Amino acid sequence: MHVARLSLTDYRNYRRAELALEPGATVFVGRNGQGKTNLVEAIGYLSTLGSHRVSGDQALIRAGADAAIVRALLAHGDRELLVELQLNRQGANRAQLNRSPVKTRELPRYAHSVLFAPEDLAIVRGEPGVRRRLLDELLVQRTPRLAGVTADYERVLKQRNSLLKSARTRGLAADRLPTLDIWDERLVALGSEIIDQRLALVAELAGPLADAYRAIVDADHSPGLLPVLSIDGADIEADASGFETAPSSPPQPAEVTTTGERFAATLRALRPKELERGVTLAGPHRDDLLLLLNDLPAKGYASHGESWSFALALRLASAELLRRDSTTGDPVLVLDDVFAELDRLRRQRLAEAIGGFEQVLVTAAVLEDVPEPLTARIVRIDAGRIVEEGADA
After folding, report:
1. 170 and 262 in contact (C-beta within 8 Å)?
2. pLDDT tens, residue by residue, 69-98
3. In this structure, are residues 5 and 19 in contact, taking their beta carbons and an 8 Å threshold?
4. Residue 36 falls within a domain, yes or no?
5. Residues in the annotated binding site
6. Which residues define the annotated binding site for ATP?
7. N or C: less crowded end of the chain, CB within 10 Å?
């Protein structure tokens, strides 16, 4: 799959932009702050329903405008699909496929992309929520219905937390909260599916991660992934480093084996503490993913270069899984200001590693940072305007 045309209206610093794209590599060149990242961010949003730079939608709407519109014509062979998303300042966002209204959460079913940016260093060095988001975004692209499961879990979690906070304020004991059992059942049902899906994904990522890391650095540093589950007693908030675990619930009985059984048992054990704190202390919202390099936690031990390579390898591994699954070809691979952080050898190795993808979009402030094989087509950006296009720009 590739993006054949991208159209933006009142998105970030673009009042209006129209851009034709082709398979192969395209480099967006411009000084910092001109809008080149905004173009690829819009493509990434269609795939993940989120920005890699901000948590909300409001910053994506141009100042003074009521809504931003992103349109992308996706092509795969002889088939074309027009995907449209309207981000509103007031009210819910809206989406269309071939001019017919659809739920916004349906878009990742059709638009597949993997974006790597400097912010991805937080995958290695940041908080657990960044790593959870990495897994969940990939899960939704591979299995779009999980967007609904995740949204339902968040709603149940919010209701359960509200009940716990109310009980704490009123000083109610557990036996005075019969509705809590109902919320527990729903939380366990939804949360167990999310946990199981994440565990399966982590297992699938192991091989492609090792291959991608080796391709980038030309060394076998044995990158690894280890799920850290709150339902098994891990407390990711117990240690500021994020890679130590501490028991937050008693050991599970031997006969408790399924994810749902472990989740339910942990909630029962934690109920007094939850009533005391007014918050849900176990579930996929409190899990983490431990990143290992040579059997040591990458967070805290890996150098800047190793952390950068690990995060990039995770994105490339994600792209490889999407490529294996998809009936519409490769995902669009986006590298946002990546090459400036790499030495010459790693630039060349990365260019070789991604050369087989159908469409690669690269942003750079300095064209000389980008390896020559990726500069077949150059698009220059200046102050929210596409000022020059072409291979010999």
Report:
1. no
2. 999 999 988 899 999 999 999 999 999 999
3. yes
4. yes
5. 30-37
6. 30-37
7. C
